[in-house]
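QA checklist item 7 of 12: single-chain prediction sanity check.
[x] sequence parsed
[x] length recorded as 308
[x] structure emitted
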Amino acid sequence: MPIKIPDALPAVETLGSENIFVMTEYRAIHQDIRPLSLLILNLMPTKIVTETQILRKLSNTPLQIEVELLQTASHVAQHVDTDHLESFYRTFDQVRDRTYDGMIITGAPVENLDFSQVDYWDELCEIMEWSKTNVHSTLHICWGAQAGLYYHYGVPKYSLNEKLFGIYPHQVVKKDSPWFRGFDDIFYAPHSRYTTIRPEDVAKVPQLKVYAVSDEAGIFAIKSEDNRHLFVLGHPEYDKETLNLEYQRDVKRGLDIHVPRNYFPGDDPTREPVVSWRSAGQLLYTNWLNYYVYQTTPYNINEIRTAR
């Protein structure tokens, strides 16, 4: 997929070195085509890492996508250069009058806080409310999924006894779903979180259906019946080294953290991690884009508002 991003974004060089087709703004304006308009609300502190990981997953279909990056104005990011934010990120006030074919809301390392204790919670609620009328389909990831389930449907989150941390096997529940078309009977996905949701709470909401689960990690994927909201409780976009870097960080902090499950051969952190989730993660993003964004969004993007 030729993803259209600003020429100077750090991801351009990284993805180009991986032979991923990245279309710069200059080339895109010379094509007579209506690209999909996609907004990424990046709540992770490691902005550049996360934006690169997600852009990598958006890069494997023949569609052209115009990507914009969104940050919260009510929270000051501590781990990214302000010049990067000023150059490549917008605030909600700058996009609230726009409409988008798709939106991604990332995870955030705040799951141990009550939602109301998160300093940008009110702003996030405003954005999620706005997405009901201004976005055709929204994909929520990890804590972003927990936040979306709570805001839109009242599904609560619960603390775990220990961090859910590693690579876990999953099974597809709705095998005829386009979202999981092409998936193996068993697929793997990374998890890294201290909280979870419970099946009985999801079952109380008739508009929601569970699409994939794990015996160890619990519910993995949920979708609303109208295809407007999709929720993924793991991190299918993670790179090979992401869990390793998180593990080493937590060890240095002196936290009581176990080795990520099923990640290092023999659970030996001195050995190189083995990637077992890349193809499933790619399919999950690609199928969302194809079946729930491209196939159903109005050709006139301004009709997204009137279609609601």
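[x] summary fact logged: The longest helix spans residues 278-294.
[ ] second reviewer sign-off
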